[in-house]
Design goal:
3-stranded antiparallel beta sheet
């Protein structure tokens, strides 16, 4: 089950479930579209994996499996 982290690890922008600006790597490192494209060139700065558009958790499951509230922010 994806954690669906609530923010970009680089700039701390909020990333709601279903937003078209959320990208993740295979380890669930999470970034906004701007940081993915302009800072990281589509590659996770933590693990080196590719960043892909994060899937949306369907509304029927979001109540049972809510988005994480734990914010992750990497120091530059």
């Amino acid at each position: 089950m994806l954690e669906l982290r609530p923010n970009c690890e680089t700039c701390d922008t909020d990333l709601p479930n279903g937003g078209p600006i959320s990208y993740i790597c295979t380890l669930e490192c999470t970034f906004c579209a701007d940081c993915t494209e302009n800072n990281h060139n589509g590659t996770c700065p933590n693990c080196g994996g590719n960043l892909v558009l994060r899937p949306t958790r369907p509304a029927v499951y979001i109540t049972k499996y809510p988005q994480s509230t734990k914010r992750v922010l990497k120091k530059a």
